[in-house]
Amino acid sequence: MAENENSSEVSDSKYEEFYCCYLLRSLAPNYRQTGYIGSTNNPKRRLRQHNGEISLGAKQTVKKRPWEIVLFVYGFPNQVAALQFEWSWQNPSKTRRLHLTSRDEFRENDDKLSTSLRALSKMLQDKFWSRWPLHLNIMVPLGSIKLQQGRTTINASTLFDITNLPKKIRVTNGNIDEFNDYHKGSIRKHVRNEYSKYLEQIKKNNISSCNICLENIDFNNHKDYINCLNIDCNMSSHITCLAKQFTKSEALEESTLKNSYDKLKEEILPISGKCPICQMILLWGDLIQAMMIREKYVLNDLVLKE
Ligand SMILES: [Zn+2]
Ligand SMILES: [Zn+2]
């Protein structure tokens, strides 16, 4: 991704840590139940492209302009995971992970908006995806979207009830500017935490050790270690040490007679776990994000403008 000239500032265009899958809804009079699923690292710019305000819009959406973003999902472990999520969301009837009892659950002739909402609801409930540290940002209240189903009119919220989502999925509401502020706020929080801890560690002459294996940590090797997200906690560990600890406890929780602990231990990717010092629950995705932000901001000595 290209760095912009203002790299010392956290600006709207700085979304390197961010990638989302979004759902659009057409506002054209005859296409109100038309949806469109895509992915982007900048939803504000992408919407302007779909609406033809700036160039490079997706061709499929030209006829049904204007569009609005109903909601988007982010917090994927990496961009490949986001693209896989996007594909499954676009093709729910072909997605084996959804374990559909029959392919008719997502009929081709259903309108795209209803299908997309039902598919997302099902995906976020599914164990496979709900293990990821996903966030859902809702831009248009679902209760305000009316959908025609045969002769009856229903609310979109009956197809996708957010109160039923697994607790791990964080839900926020608001327009894109509110979301940008929220997202920038969370980056700032990580930068503050990581900066102050880095300065502490360097003051100690870089001789602190990993809280798990007790071997030394090289605090200038930013890809090698993780700090607790609790600003008052001094836990630092090698990334591999904490990953092993998290996967062990997850495998222990998930193991059954059929799926043995040893087998699971090999397969599971860390999703979350407790800090070994302060016991705070930490999401793996948040830890990795904080590590990447530390590498970028601390290493390049970027100053945050308040
Ligand atoms: Zn270690
Ligand atoms: Zn801690």
From TrEMBL:
<dbReference type="InterPro" id="IPR013083">
    <property type="entry name" value="Znf_RING/FYVE/PHD"/>
</dbReference>
<keyword id="KW-0540">Nuclease</keyword>
<protein>
    <recommendedName>
        <fullName>GIY-YIG domain-containing protein</fullName>
    </recommendedName>
</protein>
<keyword id="KW-0255">Endonuclease</keyword>
<dbReference type="GO" id="GO:0008821">
    <property type="term" value="F:crossover junction DNA endonuclease activity"/>
</dbReference>
<dbReference type="Pfam" id="PF21202">
    <property type="entry name" value="SLX1_C"/>
</dbReference>
<dbReference type="InterPro" id="IPR027520">
    <property type="entry name" value="Slx1"/>
</dbReference>
<keyword id="KW-0234">DNA repair</keyword>
<dbReference type="InterPro" id="IPR000305">
    <property type="entry name" value="GIY-YIG_endonuc"/>
</dbReference>
<dbReference type="InterPro" id="IPR035901">
    <property type="entry name" value="GIY-YIG_endonuc_sf"/>
</dbReference>
<dbReference type="GO" id="GO:0000724">
    <property type="term" value="P:double-strand break repair via homologous recombination"/>
</dbReference>
<comment type="similarity">
    <text>Belongs to the SLX1 family.</text>
</comment>
<comment type="function">
    <text>Catalytic subunit of the SLX1-SLX4 structure-specific endonuclease that resolves DNA secondary structures generated during DNA repair and recombination. Has endonuclease activity towards branched DNA substrates, introducing single-strand cuts in duplex DNA close to junctions with ss-DNA.</text>
</comment>
<comment type="subunit">
    <text>Forms a heterodimer with SLX4.</text>
</comment>
<keyword id="KW-0227">DNA damage</keyword>
<dbReference type="InterPro" id="IPR048749">
    <property type="entry name" value="SLX1_C"/>
</dbReference>
<keyword id="KW-0233">DNA recombination</keyword>
<dbReference type="Pfam" id="PF01541">
    <property type="entry name" value="GIY-YIG"/>
</dbReference>
<dbReference type="InterPro" id="IPR050381">
    <property type="entry name" value="SLX1_endonuclease"/>
</dbReference>
<keyword id="KW-0539">Nucleus</keyword>
<dbReference type="GO" id="GO:0017108">
    <property type="term" value="F:5'-flap endonuclease activity"/>
</dbReference>
<keyword id="KW-0378">Hydrolase</keyword>
<feature type="domain" description="GIY-YIG">
    <location>
        <begin position="17"/>
        <end position="101"/>
    </location>
</feature>
<dbReference type="GO" id="GO:0033557">
    <property type="term" value="C:Slx1-Slx4 complex"/>
</dbReference>
